[in-house]
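Anyone up for a design puzzle?
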Protein backbone atom coordinates (compact mmCIF):
# COMPACT_ATOMS: atom_id res chain seq x y z
CA UNK A 1 0.00 0.00 0.00
CA UNK A 2 2.84 2.38 0.87
CA UNK A 3 4.49 1.71 -2.48
CA UNK A 4 1.18 2.57 -4.20
CA UNK A 5 1.43 -0.68 -6.16
CA UNK A 6 -1.88 -2.32 -7.03
CA UNK A 7 -0.39 -5.76 -7.72
CA UNK A 8 -0.97 -7.08 -4.20
CA UNK A 9 -3.21 -4.32 -2.86
CA UNK A 10 -6.58 -2.77 -3.67
CA UNK A 11 -9.05 -0.36 -2.04
CA UNK A 12 -11.38 -3.31 -1.42
CA UNK A 13 -8.68 -5.32 0.37
CA UNK A 14 -7.56 -2.32 2.43
CA UNK A 15 -11.08 -1.50 3.62
CA UNK A 16 -11.83 -5.14 4.40
CA UNK A 17 -8.61 -5.47 6.42
CA UNK A 18 -9.22 -2.22 8.32
CA UNK A 19 -12.78 -3.30 9.10
CA UNK A 20 -11.59 -6.60 10.57
CA UNK A 21 -8.88 -4.82 12.55
CA UNK A 22 -11.40 -2.42 14.07
CA UNK A 23 -13.86 -5.15 15.02
CA UNK A 24 -11.07 -7.16 16.66
CA UNK A 25 -9.89 -4.19 18.71
CA UNK A 26 -10.75 -4.33 22.40
CA UNK A 27 -9.55 -2.16 25.27
CA UNK A 28 -11.26 -2.72 28.60
CA UNK A 29 -9.51 0.30 30.09
CA UNK A 30 -11.05 2.70 27.56
CA UNK A 31 -14.60 1.74 26.58
CA UNK A 32 -15.18 4.99 24.71
CA UNK A 33 -12.17 4.41 22.48
CA UNK A 34 -13.33 0.85 21.79
CA UNK A 35 -16.74 2.19 20.80
CA UNK A 36 -15.18 4.74 18.44
CA UNK A 37 -12.94 2.13 16.83
CA UNK A 38 -15.92 -0.18 16.27
CA UNK A 39 -17.81 2.71 14.67
CA UNK A 40 -14.88 3.15 12.30
CA UNK A 41 -15.05 -0.57 11.59
CA UNK A 42 -18.67 -0.20 10.53
CA UNK A 43 -17.68 2.53 8.06
CA UNK A 44 -14.82 0.47 6.64
CA UNK A 45 -17.12 -2.54 6.30
CA UNK A 46 -19.79 -0.50 4.52
CA UNK A 47 -17.19 0.87 2.11
CA UNK A 48 -15.80 -2.62 1.50
CA UNK A 49 -19.27 -3.98 0.71
CA UNK A 50 -19.84 -1.12 -1.73
CA UNK A 51 -16.52 -1.80 -3.46
CA UNK A 52 -17.33 -5.52 -3.55
CA UNK A 53 -20.59 -4.79 -5.37
CA UNK A 54 -18.59 -2.83 -7.96
CA UNK A 55 -16.07 -5.67 -8.36
CA UNK A 56 -18.62 -8.38 -9.17
CA UNK A 57 -18.76 -7.61 -12.90
CA UNK A 58 -15.01 -7.05 -13.28
CA UNK A 59 -12.21 -9.55 -14.00
CA UNK A 60 -11.24 -11.52 -10.90
CA UNK A 61 -8.05 -10.39 -9.14
CA UNK A 62 -6.11 -12.20 -6.43
CA UNK A 63 -6.72 -9.19 -4.15
CA UNK A 64 -10.47 -9.58 -4.66
CA UNK A 65 -10.34 -13.20 -3.49
CA UNK A 66 -8.28 -12.15 -0.48
CA UNK A 67 -10.65 -9.30 0.35
CA UNK A 68 -13.77 -11.48 0.19
CA UNK A 69 -12.03 -13.98 2.47
CA UNK A 70 -11.30 -11.20 4.97
CA UNK A 71 -14.91 -9.99 4.72
CA UNK A 72 -16.10 -13.50 5.55
CA UNK A 73 -13.94 -13.51 8.68
CA UNK A 74 -15.17 -10.03 9.62
CA UNK A 75 -18.82 -11.01 9.34
CA UNK A 76 -18.18 -14.01 11.57
CA UNK A 77 -16.61 -11.70 14.15
CA UNK A 78 -19.76 -9.56 13.90
CA UNK A 79 -21.94 -12.63 14.64
CA UNK A 80 -23.25 -12.71 11.06
CA UNK A 81 -22.02 -16.26 10.44
CA UNK A 82 -24.57 -17.18 7.77
CA UNK A 83 -23.64 -14.13 5.71
CA UNK A 84 -19.97 -14.83 6.31
CA UNK A 85 -20.50 -18.32 4.93
CA UNK A 86 -21.93 -16.87 1.73
CA UNK A 87 -18.85 -14.70 1.32
CA UNK A 88 -16.60 -17.71 1.89
CA UNK A 89 -18.52 -19.63 -0.76
CA UNK A 90 -18.11 -16.69 -3.15
CA UNK A 91 -14.37 -16.62 -2.46
CA UNK A 92 -14.06 -20.34 -3.27
CA UNK A 93 -16.04 -19.92 -6.50
CA UNK A 94 -13.84 -17.00 -7.56
CA UNK A 95 -10.69 -18.95 -6.68
CA UNK A 96 -11.80 -21.81 -8.94
CA UNK A 97 -12.69 -19.47 -11.83
CA UNK A 98 -9.42 -17.60 -11.35
CA UNK A 99 -7.44 -20.84 -11.58
CA UNK A 100 -5.98 -20.60 -8.11
CA UNK A 101 -5.87 -24.39 -7.85
CA UNK A 102 -4.58 -24.95 -11.38
CA UNK A 103 -0.94 -26.00 -11.22
CA UNK A 104 -0.55 -26.19 -15.00
CA UNK A 105 0.30 -22.50 -15.40
CA UNK A 106 2.62 -22.25 -12.41
CA UNK A 107 5.66 -22.11 -14.71
CA UNK A 108 4.34 -18.92 -16.31
CA UNK A 109 4.11 -16.95 -13.06
CA UNK A 110 6.85 -15.02 -11.33
CA UNK A 111 7.93 -16.27 -7.92
CA UNK A 112 6.23 -13.45 -5.92
CA UNK A 113 2.94 -13.95 -7.78
CA UNK A 114 3.05 -17.74 -7.39
CA UNK A 115 3.83 -17.33 -3.69
CA UNK A 116 0.87 -14.98 -3.24
CA UNK A 117 -1.41 -17.42 -5.05
CA UNK A 118 -0.24 -20.43 -3.04
CA UNK A 119 -0.48 -18.63 0.29
CA UNK A 120 -3.98 -17.35 -0.54
CA UNK A 121 -5.09 -20.85 -1.55
CA UNK A 122 -4.00 -22.26 1.81
CA UNK A 123 -5.56 -19.40 3.80
CA UNK A 124 -8.88 -19.91 2.00
CA UNK A 125 -8.58 -23.66 2.59
CA UNK A 126 -8.00 -23.17 6.32
CA UNK A 127 -10.85 -20.72 6.80
CA UNK A 128 -13.38 -22.83 4.90
CA UNK A 129 -12.47 -25.89 6.95
CA UNK A 130 -12.97 -23.95 10.18
CA UNK A 131 -16.38 -22.85 8.93
CA UNK A 132 -17.16 -26.41 7.89
CA UNK A 133 -16.38 -27.57 11.41
CA UNK A 134 -18.60 -24.84 12.87
CA UNK A 135 -21.60 -25.57 10.64
CA UNK A 136 -20.95 -29.30 10.09
CA UNK A 137 -20.73 -28.85 6.32
CA UNK A 138 -18.25 -29.87 3.66
CA UNK A 139 -15.80 -27.01 2.93
CA UNK A 140 -15.93 -27.76 -0.79
CA UNK A 141 -12.13 -27.65 -1.18
CA UNK A 142 -10.00 -30.64 -2.12
CA UNK A 143 -6.81 -30.50 -0.08
CA UNK A 144 -5.02 -32.65 -2.66
CA UNK A 145 -5.33 -29.86 -5.26
CA UNK A 146 -3.36 -27.43 -3.11
CA UNK A 147 0.34 -26.76 -3.70
CA UNK A 148 2.92 -28.34 -1.42
CA UNK A 149 4.03 -26.19 1.48
CA UNK A 150 7.78 -25.46 1.68
CA UNK A 151 9.84 -26.56 4.67
CA UNK A 152 9.58 -23.75 7.26
CA UNK A 153 13.09 -24.50 8.50
CA UNK A 154 14.72 -23.81 5.14
CA UNK A 155 12.14 -21.48 3.52
CA UNK A 156 10.95 -19.36 6.43
CA UNK A 157 10.82 -16.28 4.19
CA UNK A 158 7.96 -17.89 2.22
CA UNK A 159 5.72 -17.67 5.30
CA UNK A 160 6.92 -14.41 6.80
CA UNK A 161 7.29 -13.82 10.51
CA UNK A 162 5.55 -11.85 13.24
CA UNK A 163 7.66 -10.14 15.87
CA UNK A 164 6.49 -9.03 19.30
CA UNK A 165 8.18 -6.76 21.79
CA UNK A 166 7.14 -6.55 25.43
CA UNK A 167 7.32 -3.22 27.24
CA UNK A 168 9.84 -4.62 29.72
CA UNK A 169 12.48 -5.37 27.08
CA UNK A 170 13.94 -3.96 23.88
CA UNK A 171 14.33 -7.43 22.37
CA UNK A 172 11.96 -8.54 19.64
CA UNK A 173 10.78 -12.14 19.73
CA UNK A 174 9.60 -14.15 16.73
CA UNK A 175 6.41 -16.18 17.18
CA UNK A 176 7.57 -19.03 14.88
CA UNK A 177 4.85 -18.27 12.37
CA UNK A 178 6.34 -20.49 9.60
CA UNK A 179 6.22 -23.60 11.77
CA UNK A 180 2.79 -22.69 13.16
CA UNK A 181 1.23 -22.01 9.77
CA UNK A 182 2.45 -25.26 8.22
CA UNK A 183 1.38 -27.33 11.23
CA UNK A 184 -2.04 -25.64 11.18
CA UNK A 185 -2.49 -26.35 7.48
CA UNK A 186 -1.60 -30.00 7.96
CA UNK A 187 -3.94 -30.39 10.93
CA UNK A 188 -6.83 -28.74 9.09
CA UNK A 189 -6.16 -30.93 6.05
CA UNK A 190 -6.77 -33.96 8.24
CA UNK A 191 -9.93 -32.32 9.60
CA UNK A 192 -11.07 -31.70 6.03
CA UNK A 193 -10.75 -35.36 5.09
CA UNK A 194 -12.75 -36.40 8.15
CA UNK A 195 -15.35 -33.66 7.73
CA UNK A 196 -16.06 -34.52 4.10
CA UNK A 197 -17.32 -37.95 5.21
CA UNK A 198 -19.68 -36.68 7.90
CA UNK A 199 -21.02 -33.33 6.69
CA UNK A 200 -23.50 -32.04 4.14
CA UNK A 201 -22.42 -30.19 0.98
CA UNK A 202 -21.83 -26.46 1.45
CA UNK A 203 -24.44 -25.62 -1.23
CA UNK A 204 -27.18 -27.30 0.81
CA UNK A 205 -26.04 -25.58 3.98
CA UNK A 206 -26.15 -22.13 2.39
CA UNK A 207 -29.56 -22.88 0.89
CA UNK A 208 -30.80 -23.90 4.33
CA UNK A 209 -29.60 -20.57 5.74
CA UNK A 210 -27.36 -21.96 8.48
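Challenge accepted. My sequence:
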Amino acid sequence: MLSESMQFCSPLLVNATLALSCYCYHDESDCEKSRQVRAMGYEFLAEAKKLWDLEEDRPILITTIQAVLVLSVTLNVCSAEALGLRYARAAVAMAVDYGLYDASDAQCKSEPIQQAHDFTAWCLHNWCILQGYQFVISPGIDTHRLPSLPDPETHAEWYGEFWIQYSSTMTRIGVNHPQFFKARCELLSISNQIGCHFSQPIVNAVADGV
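A detail worth pointing out: The chain has a mean pLDDT of 86.
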